[in-house]
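Re: Re: token formats

Sure, here are both.
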Amino acid sequence: MEAIDEHATALADAIEAALPGWVERCVRVRLGPGDDPGPEVEAAAADAGRQAAAEVGGAVRRLLAADIDEQGTTPLALLRGAVRFPTEVLREAGAAPVPRDRVQERLFPEDVYDLAPASFADVDPSLFEPGLRWGAAKAFAHKQRHGGGAAPMPTKKRVVAYVPDLMDRSKVASAPADVTFVNRPADLAARAAEAGADLVVVDLTRPGVVEQLAGIEAPVVGFANHTNREAMEAASAAGASQVLARSAFFARLDDLLGG
């Protein structure tokens, strides 16, 4: 258990360090890139960031210090609860709620500014690596304790993905699947066939993607901004198995790629 304790401490330290900056960025982004929030709002955001680090960071640290069989939630779920800190600052500043798709409204009804992180990297890119290492260490410790030795290891889903955005790619790469990325939409069909892919994931907002879908034999899941109805409808017509709003796709990422 020494390895998982080390990774848990590293993740807790990283989350605690990242939370203040994340809260302040959330406030600035939702107030608008060209708007000057003013010293009072900036001070309120900084104070809210410190509170988030103390309260949510402390909750994460206590969770990760618990035995793995007693961890009733996840660090990411606790981080999603941290939206209350920037949300309160934004409400006090008079910021208008943002439009959200129905899935997000159902999953996170209090997140009126659409701030809930879909992954550790959404809070800060620096959390990606410690989150990945802790998750792998926990999975290994759980298997050592409960695997029973004779039980076969579950086979990871084989996924081929065309996701050019580096941040989005890091999220897909962190999913519990064997993911292979291609650099061109034209390579999707051949690479999926070669890999015996169980699933193909595509960013529908990229040029040339929809035109390739009909030639892919594996099930295809595509995502786009919820306002991009044209791309989503075209993908459905081209035979995509599932077409999701971007926020819904990343909220369900582990289920889609790991199920």
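Second one below.
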Amino acid sequence: MTGFDTARYYLTILVLVSVPGAVLFWFAIHPFAGFWRRAGVGSAYVAGFGVMIVVGALLFLLRRPLMAVDFGSSWATAGPGIALLVVSAVMRQMWQRQLKLATLFGLPELAPQKYPPKLLTEGIYARVRHPRYLEYSLGAIGLALVCNNAAAYGAVLLTLAGMAVLIPMEERELVARFGPAYEEYRRRVPALVPAARRRNASQSS
């Protein structure tokens, strides 16, 4: 086994145990936001991280059969994968300039009285409504291409399917939180494919 093969092996384990769980974390939060506001932020995090840890541990225990189909080291997939990881890292830097740590962890949703929500519409958020999901998707796909293992591809496909469910769920909560302001923002800014140029309110359709 070459050094690259060894790196792919451990990277595949990392993808398997962490990528799906990071999305499942929010499935324990968003659908039950009203309940968690009453139960407390701590309880919400215990539930979210609990789901993440249990799923990650289960996938780790099943890693051998799940990782049995390996397509081998290939720069034909690793090259584009690395390129996507670079794009993902650049996007992360862009949204981190605007997103406070409290917002990243959902505190305006879980404790709006203590952390007043703010609708982000500037910077990268003027081009795409969900830059975090876009960045995470590109990074996950990039990792899977570098791994070139069926387990990594499967984990990413399940993650993307989860996002397809999670985004409308989150947007319903955003509409409830921000009302017409978010509706107008949603009309003029795409969800995941960045707009070529910023459109102002008068250009929305």
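DSSP finds ten helices and no strands in the chain. The chain has one domain: 3-203.
- S.
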